[in-house]
Amino acid sequence: MSNYFNTLTLREKLEQLGQCRFMEASEFEDGVNALKGKKIVIVGCGAQGLNQGLNMRDSGLDISYTLRKTAIEQKRESFVNATSNGFTVGTYEELLPTADLVINLTPDKQHTNVVNAVMPLLKKGATLSYSHGFNIVEEGMQIREDLTVIMVAPKCPGSEVREEYKRGFGVPTLIAVHPNNDPEDKGWAQAKAYAVATGGHRAGVLASSFVAEVKSDLMGEQTILCGLLQTGAILSFDKMVEEGIDAGYAAKLIQYGWETVTEALKHGGITNMMDRLSNPAKIEAFRLSEELKDIMRPLFQKHMDDIMTGHFSKTMMEDWANDDVNLLKWRAATGETAFEKQHITTDEISEQEYFDHGTLLVAFVRAGVELAFEAMTESGIIDASAYYESLHETPLIANTIARKKLFEMNRVISDTAEYGCYLFDHACKPLLADFMKTVSTNVIGKPFSSENGVDNQELIKVNQIIRNHPVEKVGATLRASMTAMKVIKTS
Ligand SMILES: NC(=O)C1=CN([C@@H]2O[C@H](COP(=O)(O)OP(=O)(O)OC[C@H]3O[C@@H](n4cnc5c(N)ncnc54)[C@H](OP(=O)(O)O)[C@@H]3O)[C@@H](O)[C@H]2O)C=CC1
Ligand SMILES: CC[C@](O)(C(C)=O)C(=O)O
Ligand SMILES: [Mg+2]
Ligand SMILES: [Mg+2]
C-alpha cells in the first residue's frame, strides 16, 4: 500500500482537492429511502460510532454493531455503549456477511487491520463507509472491486453529532464516493441518505472527495481546532498566574472562555466575536492577532505542506509502529500542565466578562481561524470546506474544553486529531515565548483600558479588514443556510 494522493497526477490532485459543492435541500428529498430496510452494521462503538448509530436508528434505519471478539467477551465500554442503548451486538462473522452497508467507525490507526479483517466477510455488492478518508488517501487501502466505498464525515465531535440531532438539527457534513469504487453507481444516493439519517442535511452537506476531506480535516484539527486552543489555553493560564491572577479564576476564564467567545463566532463570524469587545479592546485584539498571524504563519504553512506531501501521515504512522511513543509522551505532558491540574473557582463569571477579560483569547481565535483558512485555500481547498474546518468547528471543539478541559477535548477527538494537536502545540509554544513576554493582564485576566481612547479612522480601518476577510464572506453565506442554529448557554 502506498499514499494514494501521491500516486495521482498534479491535474488529478487539483481536481480532487477542488471538489466541493454545497448541496441543495431538494437533493435530499428522497430522505433515508436509499437505506431504508437495508441492514446497516457499524464497526466500533466509540465517539462517532455510538452517536451516529443513535441518530440513524432514530431516523428509522436498521442499525447493529459489530465489535472485535475481545470487546464482547470482556464487555468493554464499546460493548456497554451499544447494549445499554438496546442495539444488537455481534462478532464480525455473525453480522457482516448479511450486511448491506458496513460503516467503519474504528480509530484511523486501526483501519488497515479492521478493513483487512472485515473485507473478506462482506457480501458481493455491499457498501463500505468511512467518516474520515485517511485509510484510503494516506495509506492507499485497496478495496475489493465489487464493493461501493463512500464517506460521510460529520465536521464535528461525535458528542455534538448527537446533541445537534436531539436539538432537531444536525452538523455540516462532507460526503464523497471513492472514484475507484462505485461499481453500481449507488454511492451518492446512499451517502445522501446516510447524511439525512444523521441530520447533517439540515446543517449543510458538501459533495466532496476523499482527498479534499482528508487534507482539510487534518489541517483544521492540528492547527486552529485543537492545537491552537491547547497552546493558547496553556500560555494564557501561565501568564495570568505569573502576573498574580487567582489560579482558580484564571482556569475558569480559559475553560469556559473559549466556549463563550467562540459562541459569538458561531453566530456571526469573526466580525461578531470582535464586536463583543469594547472599541479600544477590539483595536488591541486586532493588533495582537496581526502579530500572532505574522509569528505563526510559517508554522501553519508547514503543517499544510507536510499534510499535502504526506510527510505528516508518514511520521504519524511511524509513531503508530513505534507503540505511540510520541503520542503517549505528549498526552502525559498535557495532563501535567498547571492549567489542566488547577481546580476552577466557583465564583460566577458573567458572559460579557469572558470577553472583557479575554482580549487575548479573541486575538488567538481570529489569528488561528484566518491562518488555517488562508493556508487551506492557498493550497487548493475550496473556501466552504476550509470554513467548516476552521471557523465553523472551533466552537464545537471549545464546547469539549468547557466540559473537562484539554483532557476532554483530546479524549473526544480522533486519534489523528490528538496526535496532530500535540505536534502543533509542541512547536507553537516555543514560537510564542517572546510574544507572551510582551503581553500582560490588561489583555488576559483583567479588562483592557486604553488611555488614548479610540481613533475613528483606525477603528474604521480595523472593522473593514475584519469584515472583508474571505472567511467572513463565505461564512455569511453558509451560516444563512443554518437557520436553526441553537444557542449554547455557558455555566
Ligand atoms: N472523534 C471524532 O469526533 C471524529 C472522528 N471521525 C472519524 O471517525 C472514525 C472513528 O473515530 P472515533 O469515533 O474517534 O473512534 P474511537 O476511538 O472513539 O473508536 C473506538 C471504537 O473502535 C473500536 N476499536 C478500536 N480498535 C479496534 C480494532 N483494532 N478492531 C476493531 N475495533 C476497534 C473500539 O472498540 P474496543 O472496545 O474493541 O476497543 C471502539 O468501539 C475515525 O475515522 C475518525 O477519524 C470523524 C469526525 C470526528
Ligand atoms: C477536530 C477533530 C476532528 O477532525 C473532528 C471532531 O472533526 C477529529 O478527527 O476528531
Ligand atoms: Mg474533523
Ligand atoms: Mg479528524
TrEMBL record:
The organism's superkingdom is given as Bacteria
Gene for this protein? Answer: ilvC
Write the lineage as a comma-separated list: Bacteria, Pseudomonadati, Bacteroidota, Flavobacteriia, Flavobacteriales
The protein here is known as Ketol-acid reductoisomerase (NADP(+))
The segment(s) forming the KARI C-terminal knotted domain are 209-341, 345-485
Xref: InterPro entries: 6-PGluconate_DH-like_C_sf (IPR008927), 6PGD_dom2 (IPR013328), KARI (IPR013023), KARI_C (IPR000506), KARI_N (IPR013116), NAD(P)-bd_dom_sf (IPR036291)
Look up the signal peptide feature and give its range: none
Q: Which residues form the KARI N-terminal Rossmann domain?
A: 14-208
Q: Report the cofactor remark.
A: Binds 2 magnesium ions per subunit.
Which family, according to the similarity comment? Belongs to the ketol-acid reductoisomerase family.
Q: Which UniProt keywords apply?
A: Amino-acid biosynthesis, Branched-chain amino acid biosynthesis, Magnesium, Metal-binding, NADP, Oxidoreductase
Query: What's the cofactor?
Result: Mg(2+)
Binding of Mg(2+) 2: at which residues?
217, 389, 393
